[in-house]
Fold Cell wall hydrolase.
Amino acid sequence: MTPTPPPTTPVIRAILAVLALLAVLLPAIIVATAPRIAPVERTLARPSVRVIPPAELPPVEPTAFVAVDPADARSFNAAVPFSSAPNLPARAFRIIGTPDSIARGTDCLTAGMLYESGDDSVGQRAVAQVILNRVRHPAFPKSVCGVVFQGSERSTGCQFTFTCDGALARRYSDAAWGRARAVATAALQGRVDKRVGTATHYHTDWVVPYWSSSLDKISEVNTHLFFRWTGWWGTPPAFRGRYAGTEPVVPELAGIAASHGTGEVPAGVEDATVAATTIALADMPAPLPTDPNSFAITLDPRVAADQYAVYAKRLCGDRGYCKLLGWTERADTPAMLPAEPAILARMAFSYLRDSARGYERTLWNCDRFARPDRRDCMKRQVLQAPKRDATPAAAAATPAPPVPDLSGVRRRSGTLVPVPGPSTTPTEAPAKR
């Protein structure tokens, strides 16, 4: 037999109904009366911006990105306002040098444009302008190839990511390369992209570089955002660096651009890579014992005159201040400075760097090495010869000619002697505006 359920009373039924009703109402009441939870917008911290003064050269930070989702990066970048200061165009850039050097520079610029912005002439022109702006800025190398491949020897820290992330293993079609090379040629012959102004940095809108918060956002071209340094270093007068006039062979482009060949140096043209990498540090001269920031050296015969600047920069390393005076003959090289006027007359090259003042200068003895720009030539000074008297005693009493200041120019009558410094010393350099 099936057991008969116990009878229910009206009281029990009422209690069960109330419990069922409460089970429905209580959650509804809690949901309806709960305080509103406001969504928290994800933001990226922006460090305080320090405007670099004109007397201090701005540092060039390696490319490093904040770890952030692309969608969040786009939101963050869109929230950054554009600078309200005028976006003034850069001066036209016109490349100089030998045909081989110009071809190498053109191909370096082509690679930078194509691998950074793809087969798109609008984006390519903007990227080309940034690269040429960097060539003119004292904070960057003074050649097109030097700018494009700056830091490429490191797996991280390169300035253009395609030079150190393996992207060069990908080849563009000959047609795409030819279109980009035509854009590069126009830029190197004076075409200016006014949209970019004096921008020295850019990035795509789906990433956030660490340096972006310290620069002024000035324009947007396609998916690229363009930036310049804040303060004086982002204004046209700051772009006073002079193009080196020669381009190195870049081994990474050997299989892409004919001008860079297989890494062999074209006839009559020295490879900057020889000075920068082939000559071991152990083979390089030491600074003067009385001044660790000054060198009086016999120039390495493996280095061509066009590459003395590359050699000097490697020798100076990361010194903020460095002075190098070079002779081609060991017999002429003085052991100490200052040197005799006759020794200075045979000097072949000088290099002076003063990073605290944003100053860098390379000079050649143009009586020995022809330069395409006469501003690269050492200035001459006139030294007064001692007056001769008929008597030996008077001759002995005649003082010797004063030793010249190596960093300036003094005019006297007598013999012409090249001076290794610019027309003014670093402390006398024109004030930056």
